[in-house]
């Protein structure tokens, strides 16, 4: 590692800058990127489960620029936006972006991270928001101690027992102040500015709650420890605002403000907001296909979205249910998938032999295939798609997602270019779980990913 620690070895001797624009051979890149800074610019604004690291997107964009396939000003699309890694990196490289996600928190985070803000407007909004906020929150505490009510505050639909008091009232006070500023702001960017500061409130909400630290799924800290949990909401929020403003300043100085980023709270199984043959490159990391035991995006997002973004409890509870393979999915299982993917057929056979979750796996890949079809529709003929997938397990059976992805895409007419393996050195995912919910019984999950690179059908 050199003094410039944002470097990666290509082959035995070639080195590239931290922007990875010099990549000319995808197979020579060490895709693990262990030790690299993954929180640069706005990437560090807010945590999110199973976040794709920015260097993957950066290297892919650099490679295809060098190949003359894409150039700044083209359109980059991500059908599974998550917290916006693809959109942020594409904007930094000078591209327009579009993205979909069914999770309201994901859509909001992507917009907040990808759209640059004028620094003078950012600082002005910050001054108006933070001015005498500490005094107002202290008054909330005093009112609560005196036994006064808070009839003027609309309490969010969080579940009872998940927040200390009066901290929940303090969070609502910040929420209402952002609302008022957005409604009365004199100048442009009111919605974008308010969205940006709600990110800090979202993170403060999670830190204030009784959510157990280090967990993306919803787990309460032990009741015996809750008496010691008395967070200072102002200090937490002020810290988040200061850090986020610094990150946005760094981002805004580097990004082309004339480019555009659009994010749709929408289902990529239909991708209704993305026009046919309009996209120049797709870079995405699909969900892992098991919200209940692996990555529960909705559980992670529930309280932050309800408090900071004023979403409803029912809407956020439904996020994991409507995801790929979720319990509230709408597509009927597509039995012919097994004919089109030998790897899927073999996997389902093993699951059926052991009375495993074959139906769940088939439902996930049916939904995933619908997204593949939409990607084929929106992507320009011959242009690239990169699927960043992990090979998880179901019922203790390894699911070769990279092989299934390749085979199903080839059925549609995609041309396979590369499958690039990478370790996951620091990704916050469970490496073990208890699929049978039996005490002491665990099963391995995933510690590696594959980047499946393909090109869209030519016709």
Automatic annotation (TrEMBL):
BP-aspect Gene Ontology terms: DNA restriction-modification system; methylation
Protein name, per record: site-specific DNA-methyltransferase (cytosine-N(4)-specific)
DNA methylase N-4/N-6 domain: residues covered: 31-94
Organism: Natrinema salifodinae
InterPro entries named in the record: DNA_methylase_N4/N6, MeTrfase_CN4_CS, SAM-dependent_MTases_sf
Any GO MF annotation of the entry: DNA binding
Top enzyme category: transferase
EC identifiers of the protein: 2.1.1.113
Keywords assigned by UniProt, alphabetized: DNA-binding, Methyltransferase, Restriction system, S-adenosyl-L-methionine, Transferase
Family assignment from sequence similarity: Belongs to the N(4)/N(6)-methyltransferase family. N(4) subfamily.
Gene3D superfamilies per UniProt: Vaccinia Virus protein VP39
Keyword Methyltransferase: yes
Keyword Cell division: no
Signal sequence extent: none
Reaction catalysed by this enzyme: a 2'-deoxycytidine in DNA + S-adenosyl-L-methionine = an N(4)-methyl-2'-deoxycytidine in DNA + S-adenosyl-L-homocysteine + H(+)
